[in-house]
Write a sequence for this structure.
DNA sequence: CCATTAATGAACGCCGAGTCCATATAAGCA
DNA sequence: TGCTTATATGGACTCGGCGTTCATTAATGG
């Protein structure tokens, strides 16, 4: 008697009946809806109830698969931006660093991803599950890539051997996060370039 | 007829009757309760309702004076820690920077202030009122002090004249915030010292 | 083709946000 | 000093999201 056979136009999943459904299908719909909602309206509007509604899925399903709002948001973000994890090595460490930090600044300041990342980091400060996921799946891997590239530069004698690559990462990307999260000063590509410059040349007179 | 004349022991304000009360008195009780709650249980437990209860004050009063949960928390934090804003100038820029960044790391990693600051910055990402207050009353003034000290070093010829002090601030304190907010790596005093070292000497081979 | 399995959806209780209105008290005035 | 007025106050109220429970229904496998 339930005559609910409508074609799904785009984006808006139709309400299905009750009962078991293929997990993959549901998961895909959830991630799509979560990512879209996140980029469109930000973390403030990103509520479990809202995601359930937009994905045409029950809250129970969400709670079954994701431990917290934050982790769901993180998965939605990854699904939406399809981040390409790579750190090219042209042999020129200065050029490579500058290119990477510039690209990062462009991502943060030029797209809606910046706000989302800021809100995810913010949410992580009071959401242990998100914090763990963020470290393991986002900042950790990126940090590792940068450290690896810096280590190679050290081996090639382009960088002082006694400089800790892990600390350099904080002084390059951490500085960008600083301007993202506490925006007293603007986040520009010129800023990115000067970060690299300061560190390589040193600023002592 | 209301026989409610009890001595206020410590910390726990007695319930008063209805009606107007001296604003200063109420404000002091609110800030004390807010600060204590914040340091004791963190931002997750810091709810308007909870503060109202612990300060023995009605929610209406809180909403009348503070635009958001975050700004109330910020005021409570300042009331609790009595931050001493100073940036000594001994003439030795390296020593001064190292001392300041070290002290900052000690504050972040060694006391409960670190968690609170992290949670405030986190909350600010989705709370415009807190964001504005944080920039104007916390990060802004601190940034200005550091920039002023760096400018003096430039005038004295200790620092390259073409280095932007504002960017150096990001590469020193921003790096610390990075390890605070995305704790993939530990936040130690040795880290603080090496931040200064890297920047002053440069890391190019 | 049917029995088993397991995800689903709706409803429920709880809690905190933010608002409204009658009230009691402090402040102002005579 | 005594009264009036102005205003902060407190409790009640609505709204919305969280997280859970339980009967239901479809997918799965023999």
């Amino acid at each position: 008697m339930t005559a609910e056979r409508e074609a799904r136009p785009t984006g808006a999943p139709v309400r299905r009946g009750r009962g078991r459904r293929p997990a993959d299908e549901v998961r895909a719909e959830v991630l799509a809806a979560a990512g879209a909602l996140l980029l469109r309206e930000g973390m403030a509007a990103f509520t479990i109830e809202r995601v359930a509604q937009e994905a045409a899925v029950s809250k129970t399903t969400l709670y079954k698969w994701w431990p917290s709002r934050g982790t769901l948001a993180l998965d939605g973000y990854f699904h939406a931006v399809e981040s390409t994890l790579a750190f090219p090595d042209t042999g020129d460490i200065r050029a490579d660093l500058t290119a990477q930090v510039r690209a990062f600044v462009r991502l943060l300041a030029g797209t809606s991803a910046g706000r989302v990342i800021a809100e995810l980091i913010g949410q992580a400060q009071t959401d242990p599950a998100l914090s763990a996921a963020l470290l393991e799946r986002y900042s950790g891997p990126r940090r590792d890539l940068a450290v690896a590239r810096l280590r190679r530069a050290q081996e090639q004698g382009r960088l002082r051997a006694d400089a800790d690559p892990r600390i350099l990462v904080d002084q390059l990307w951490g500085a960008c996060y600083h301007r993202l999260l506490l925006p007293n000063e603007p986040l520009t590509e010129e800023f990115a370039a000067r970060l690299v410059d300061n560190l390589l040349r040193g600023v002592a007179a």
In short: The longest helix of chain A spans residues 128-155. The two ends of chain A are 83 Å apart (CA to CA).
